[in-house]
Amino acid sequence: MRSCWNLKFVSLFFCCTLGLLVSTNAQFSLPQEILTPRAASLPPYLFPVNPGSPNLLAGTMGELRSTHFHTGIDIRTNNMIGVPILATQSGYISRVIVGAYGYGNALMITHPDGNVSLYGHLDKFKGAIADYILKEQYARKSFDIDLPFEVGQFEINRGDTIALSGNTGGSTGPHLHFEIRNQNNEALNPLSFGFSEIKDVLSPIAFKVALTTLDINSRINDRFGRYEFSVIRSGNNYSLPFPIFADGKIGVEILAHDKLDRSQFRCGINYIEMFADSTKLFTQEIEKISFNESYDIVTLMDFKILKTKGSRFNRLYVADGNPLTFYKSVLSKGEVQVLDTQRKIKIDLRDLAGNKSQIKFTLKHDAPTENVSFLEQMTNAIDYDISENTLAVNSKVCSNKEYNSEMFIKGVSTKISPAYSGFTKNVYLIDLRKTLPDSLKTCSGNLLFNFSDVVPSGTDYHYYSDYLDADFSNGNLYDTLYLNTNYKIENNRERFTLGNLLTPLHQTISITLKPKTEFKSLDKTSAYHLEGKRFEYLGGEWLNNKITFKTHELGDFVLLTDTIPPNMGRINCNQRSARFRISDGLSGIASFEANINGEWLLMKYDYKTGIVQSEKLDKKQLLKGDFELTVRDRAGNERVYKQKIVHQK
Q: What is the mean pLDDT of the chain?
């Protein structure tokens, strides 16, 4: 039996990959007998694809992915599958993993110096290991397989062909994902091993600077919030053509990436420094990555902008709750204090090859004012946002100048004045550490905040209500959560709200929903996370008409019943092979299993295409007799295909 969880691609890729990475930690404590003097006399590491010839990369170590840091280099194979992959150094195969997600087919080699090389997204393994893996899959009756090996079981020489390149797992195109890890299971930068096959004379490229106010009293161009500015390029120097007026505590972010020769791909920048005047405020160096903190990338990037716009801005300050260890020199958490005159900001960007770029701009002090000439036009009459501990409410200016806005706290009305105003709107700023309002009423309309509680990040905390409960354990949150909850019936469906998508979670939390609807088939009714029009299956366990499940995202949740079996389309089913396309419209594929004349038959699975394809233990033996393929979804629905395969002369 083979299980495959069909989550949203981004989170699924990361979860599967991270599980693989973290679980390898105990696997690579090297026996003392292989840490011999031979390690000191090892030849240089060999480039694993076409060594000695120019190669191109599609990704570098340390670059910012949506859910994790990239832990290796992606070596292009000219969009081809089947390119020979060579062992970068002598050693022994210490682990092989086969699966539909993450790295797909992956092989790891432990070397005499204690390092481990990893080769991911492989199409096929080569040599004795390939036969061994196939036999183990049949012995275990599983496509997914995770095999550790002992010293001497499969020895490898530098330059041996260990596999053929592929497009398996979470790969979005044919390439080799290549890593080198140390004995602490930390990813090192493979390019630091001196591979001459990769040329890089191009400097990092900058696009934007973003500035954000870090407390309720700070301002940028007289305004509270986050604002982006496009830079002007002159060679490898970038600048803003005008000073930015600011006051108070300011955070700086940059949108930038590195380029490699003859490659259109956007790569990561490993070294960033920021100076205010002559004082170094911030240094970020990504030279090794611990797999235990890879998901903490959500604290290095601006998570809200990533989710709403898809842009990966690199923060040049250490946000609350950021546990990363890339910061070699940080003064006052990298925050820029603009209290008088001006601060000249300089940001140095450098890649591993030593190519440099520089960004310069000036923050000019300007005291806050209540009257701001130019404020952005509003789409809605009234809206709000939360930044750090501050609730910012924007309300269109009305003709009735005498109108008194009101804030309600536990039903009690309090007059509230704008922090500042312009021709088009009023801006109200509320410190949530001091008060948690129920609602706010202006001449433009009313806002209901649905704040239910303040959840601290450094302790266990249990939230209870009439329609849902939530268990927050110490470590679930990066920062204090001003929790909003809601319950409503929409399109004859109950919708439960706990927080929102723009709050990252460090670890999964447990939620219990208490529906008022009676479901006829509880065994086929599960919890789903709702994002736009997309449903993500979460599952859950029913007890006393309540369902409990775990989630790695906050937001909206619904209960859906899935009674429709998976889809199955026959591509071919004959003596040579059985090939089908499978899918499921709601809960997702849970498992599939094939047999011929009652004997288990291996089916390889590619979730990107939905194709399952047979692979025989004996390549010469033809398929003949009664073939059966069973596919199940996670709600327990099942579809079976049967066919008698007749021998044809």
A: 92
